[in-house]
């Protein structure tokens, strides 16, 4: 479904990604792991066209999307939730979802209701300004906004980072539910425990290279522990 081949990226002269190869199949949950600063966010931004690669290709459902703009990738079914739970703080929860719906062009009101079913905690908060939500609620809203675009694949950058444990469990349950319903997911996650519970497959990045890849069971390996330890 998503195929990344020989992907390289840089900020000016500082090279950050080196020859990244991986594939996510339909319905699969792929976890991208690795310590702070190894290039996880850079990888997702390059996959989404927020950043342009210096080499390599990104294909989605057999189409080369490497030169497409971010919104064109979203329209093809790549839903993106960037790191740091981005929302429009001055808009209410309902308006945040509505604005996203209007941007998609499909104006299918049902998409909003469906996104809310994934996060029932947001329903009583529909009239509240997003800026007044807790970090965990904002993250739920950020994921709900991506769901409104009716993605075929959801791309999430550390959705549980800095969020209180009880909400982490809710977000985990929502991701698990979306995965069980057949959505493909590319998830950046630093917590091994969570990755072990959710992932089908994983890749581990180190200094911009994929240094380990495999089925989730292999995450138990001692070698993997060493690559993730801080
Ligand atoms: N806008 C930028 N300009 C220059 N360098 C950057 C920029 N963003 C990231 N970098 C550098 O690129 C490298 C990879 O950063 P990136 O944010 O992709 O890492 P990460 O694995 O997502 O880290 P974290 O776990 O902290 O989110 C780091 O060395 C970082 O300092
Ligand atoms: Mg990051």
From TrEMBL:
Entry superkingdom: Bacteria
Alphabetized InterPro entries for the sequence: AAA+_ATPase, ABC_transporter-like_ATP-bd, ABC_transptr_urea_ATP-bd_UrtE, BCAA_Transport_ATP-bd_LivF, P-loop_NTPase
Entry's Gene Ontology molecular function annotations: ATP binding
Gene3D superfamilies documented for this protein: P-loop containing nucleotide triphosphate hydrolases
Metal-binding among keywords: no
SUPFAM superfamilies cross-referenced by the UniProt entry: P-loop containing nucleoside triphosphate hydrolases
Keywords: Amino-acid transport, ATP-binding, Nucleotide-binding, Transport
ABC transporter domain location: 2-230
Family: Belongs to the ABC transporter superfamily.
This protein's name: Urea ABC transporter ATP-binding subunit UrtE
Annotated gene: urtE
